[in-house]
Amino acid sequence: MYLHIGENEVIPLTSIISIVKCHPTKSVKTNSVKKFNKPFIAVGNISDNKIKSYVLTDEYLYGSPITLETLIKRYKNIFSRSQKFI
After folding, report:
1. Rounded distance, CA 12 to CA 7, Å?
2. What beta strand segments (E) does 1-86 contain?
3. pLDDT digits (tens, 9 = 90+) for 28-68
4. Phi, psi (degrees; rounded to nearest 5) at 26
5. Where along the chain do its domains lie?
6. CA–CA separation, 42 vs 12, rounded Å?
7. What is the pTM of this model?
8. Of the candidates 48, 47, 54, which has an alpha carbon nearest to the alpha carbon of residue 71?
9. Which helix (H) or strand (E) holds 68?
10. Is 30 helix (H, G, I), strand (E, B) or coil?
């Protein structure tokens, strides 16, 4: 199963380590999330001030224009739908 994180970007649920809200007052230089030793991908080539959440996976750190709350709703929705088929 996959999670849509913006534009045409979907990532496998099994690779997600963490989903973190972007702090609106932190500058890019002091953003501790970007200090992970993972290649950074801005979903849809958005600017840093448009990033609303970060998704950390096994291989990459994604900057998403979608809020943390929306990503969590999508994540929960995937599991609630899959439980119906069990």
Report:
1. 15
2. 2-6, 9-12, 16-21, 40-42, 53-57, 61-64
3. 555 666 677 889 999 998 888 899 999 999 999 999 999 99
4. -80, 135
5. 2-82
6. 17
7. 0.82
8. 54
9. helix 68-84
10. coil
